[in-house]
TrEMBL record:
Cofactor(s) essential for the protein: Mg(2+)
Gene name linked to the record: pyrE
Pathway(s) the chain acts in: Pyrimidine metabolism; UMP biosynthesis via de novo pathway; UMP from orotate: step 1/2
Metal-binding listed as a keyword: no
Reactions catalysed according to its record: orotidine 5'-phosphate + diphosphate = orotate + 5-phospho-alpha-D-ribose 1-diphosphate
EC number(s) from the headed UniProt entry: 2.4.2.10
Protein name: Orotate phosphoribosyltransferase
Organism: Paenibacillus sp. BIHB 4019
Entry similarity comment: Belongs to the purine/pyrimidine phosphoribosyltransferase family. PyrE subfamily.
Length: 215
């Protein structure tokens, strides 16, 4: 059986999406790696990314009506995922995204694309470190009359939650009553790199980080 998580881990390591060094996260934690979404900077890379999201949706049979991309990174993810579902799986879905600032002219509002009202929404984003984006997205979706039923991210950093003994993923899922899915986890990345001698230092640093902040 195809291992999507393993394939994605290989992709983001071999193509330099994962950066190594010292990076300060929003949480204030100093991380030895960073998922650099800006590296998806051409059509081929973005198409591959969308295919991984689409393949995960199909494999896990995630039920939804509309794909929603929270601004800003979620916008291209929603678009490329919707296209991949159509091109690869003949699944036609609506998609939408939000503006950071509500438009006061023209069509107005802050939602562009399919209406969220009365729909089950699958939101997509790049990584899961905490539940902040999920909380904000849920509030936005519900304000438009939709129901956020699922959230899909490319990479779960597998870190501790901020308020409970649960992982950040488990904490957010429970707090906001949303099913959270992932294409891959940081442990998938570590497993892939463990066989490469030139990645030994990075593997060690990530394991040390997870010993402190991992769950």
């Amino acid at each position: 059986m195809r291992d999507i998580s393993k394939e994605f881990a290989k992709f983001i390591v071999d193509d330099g999406i994962i950066k190594f060094g010292e990076f300060t996260l929003k949480s204030g934690r100093l991380s030895p790696y960073f998922f650099n979404f800006g590296s998806f900077n051409d059509s081929a890379m973005l198409a591959r990314l969308g295919s991984f999201y689409a393949d995960t949706i199909v494999k896990e049979q995630i039920p939804f009506d509309i794909i929603f991309g929270p601004a800003y990174k979620g916008i291209p993810i929603a678009l490329t995922t919707a296209l991949a579902l159509h091109n690869n799986d003949a699944i036609n879905v609506g998609f939408a995204f939000n503006r950071k600032l509500q438009k006061q002219y023209g069509e107005g509002g802050n939602i562009i694309g399919a209406s969220l009202a009365g729909k089950k929404i699958l939101a997509v984003d790049d990584v899961l470190t905490s539940g902040r984006t999920i909380k904000e997205t849920k509030q936005l979706v519900e304000s438009e009359g939709g129901q956020l039923t699922a959230f899909l991210v490319a990479l779960d950093r597998e870190e501790k939650g901020s308020e409970t003994a649960l992982s950040a993923l488990e904490e957010a899922s429970k707090a906001y009553n949303v099913n959270i899915h992932v294409v891959a986890r940081i442990t998938d990345v570590v497993a892939y790199m463990s066989d490469a001698a030139d990645k030994e230092h990075h593997v060690t640093k990530i394991k040390e980080y997870l010993n402190v902040y991992g769950k």
